[in-house]
Hints:
By secondary structure, chain A is of the alpha+beta class. Helices cover 40% and strands 27% of the residues of chain A.
Amino acid sequence: MNQQKDDIDEEIFTALQAYEALKSHYLSTSASSNHLRLSFTEIMHCARAPRAPESIVQLSLINKSLDYRRKYRFVLQNLARIHSPKQVAASTAESLLTREAAEFSLNVKNMSEHYASVTLKLKQAYEHSDETLYLHCEADDAFVTISVRRNEEDAYVGQVEQASKEYNALLSPTSEMYVVYE
Amino acid sequence: MNIEAREGDAHRGALKQDFAVEVSEHLRADFTLLREACLFTSGDAQKRKFTEKTVDKFSQHIVCRHYSGLCYELTHLCWAIINTGSNASLLDYFYIHENIKPERFTSHFTQVNECQIPQASVRLNAQEAGADFLDITIHNHQFSLSASRINLLATCLEWLLNFVPKLLETLYEGLNGKSYNAIQSMASDLQKQIYHYLHDHLPPAKVQAKFHLMSQYLSTQSLPQFDDEHILLFWLKGRERQGMSRFSTVVRDIFQYHQALASAQNANAMLHANDISEHLESETVFSALEAFADEQINLHILTEVPKLLSKQQAEKLQLIADHPKQSENFPLSLMRYVVFGQYQAKCIQAQRNQVLSIDSFALPPLNEYAALLQTFTAQVKLVEQTWMAVLHILFLEDSDDALALLSAKSNFLDILSNEKVNSYDRNKKDLLTLINESEVFKGFKAQCKQAYARNNRQGFTASSQLSDLTLYSDNTLLLLGLSKTLERILHKNEALFTNLSSDDAKYRSDGCIFKDELMQRMKL
């Protein structure tokens, strides 16, 4: 029974991949005429400085193309100091307000009707001078970035809207997380 | 994005010609991405990652298909980076530390670890500022890489990353801990990837070169396009040029060039109906090269079973089948192609057989142009006979395809209208019944039977007849299309052809030109 389900999942996955490949080809072809293509350098910059104005536009392009997402994932895998893989299989996914990873703990707390606070605590001290860390999350075939700033207690805090992709990605146990800092 | 202004000197002149811009829009966008790539800076004014000169040089390499050396050098550089660094060394080197300027290159390689492979070394050979070399030794193989090439090689890698999937991983896996053979193999793989990519974005190199030459010729002669005389002159001027020895090849190339231009102009006019620019869009010219096949008539099919044309007949009609429109517009070149193309082929064969003499250049005494025109006229009649023979087969088998074939010659259904065909609902079977019962068509059917009896080619005898009747009808429709083209050519150029048939002066003068030219070319 499980084997059969796995086979179906595999077929759906393959079909989705094929569809994404076609879509990405279409997007990259149409993008070329609209000057909306991204170079590897731009993808790299987007991962390193996600809050830059051009990076916000670039990330939306990255999320539209399978090819760009693969490159972005590759960059994050090599750039991130800390990586937290998916927590559970998709079928049992339930929202998590906290995530305990090997190298950090993440806590999301609803502050008001619309906003939630994000607290990231690193389990060991890393040598870096940055006051801001970037938490890249990949969930549902899209990347989002949350920036968190160091507070006096050496934790990193930030804020997200509850009705946002960022909030959903933070809570989703199927999201992969990458912590990037210089 | 104005690539004309940005390409290198050698390419710049060519690009300014109307036709010469055959680089696809996609490839142009690639070069623009390279020009716009910036170094990673936080807040400061953004500095270009690749210099203008480097991208000019790189685009020249690519457009001229001169990339094998680049691949070879880049693979050596990657090998040196990987085998003296960590597993993310390529990303670190090119994208995190951005060691893509000579001074950064030097700085990196003065600090790197020892090469991990036995009998291999990577050493920086310090010279004057900016002229350092990286000496790579792998067993007996030695390679020196100049620091001044680093920006160009980084440009090449950045470009490759656009279309080679998982390139950095592949380079790492393919070169880490490997020897010189791996470098060769990786360089060859990169070349293949580029070759395939450029196949979609650049026209074939030979075609490209020929079209450049034609474009240049028209510019120097201040002509908007070729005519029959200039096709001949172009061939005469190309005596020493490779690929221009046969007159027939030159005619085909020019026809193809005209076809490409015409298609591009049409596409351009459709795209910019309100703004028809004189300057052709490179993209449309490029795609036009791919579209030739649509207009061509496949003669090869007609010489197979059922044999609707003999190979000899097909030979004379080949140019018309391949370039119907151009054959119509350049009638004298069509005549010269068939008559003197064959004449030249015989001379070349004599030379190959080492029996070349003055006699080999003897021109046929009769007016060959007149003979060819007679063949063309006869061919139109022969096609009608073949059409009737096929109809006989279809009538016998009571095939619906007979109607389609009858409709192809419109006057036949007009005759039917006299026999109250309009009262029928034009159902195929009803029409066929009508045809079979019609008095008018009884005579026609008898003629079809006679045409069949006279035709003893394969597919038209009891023993060779095919069971698949659609082959007969489909191929006959093709043949009728060819015949219509032939009729159109004869009709449109009636005055010229009448003159060529009645007076052999043109044939004689052309004969003298070809004879003289070929004797000089063959050094006799």
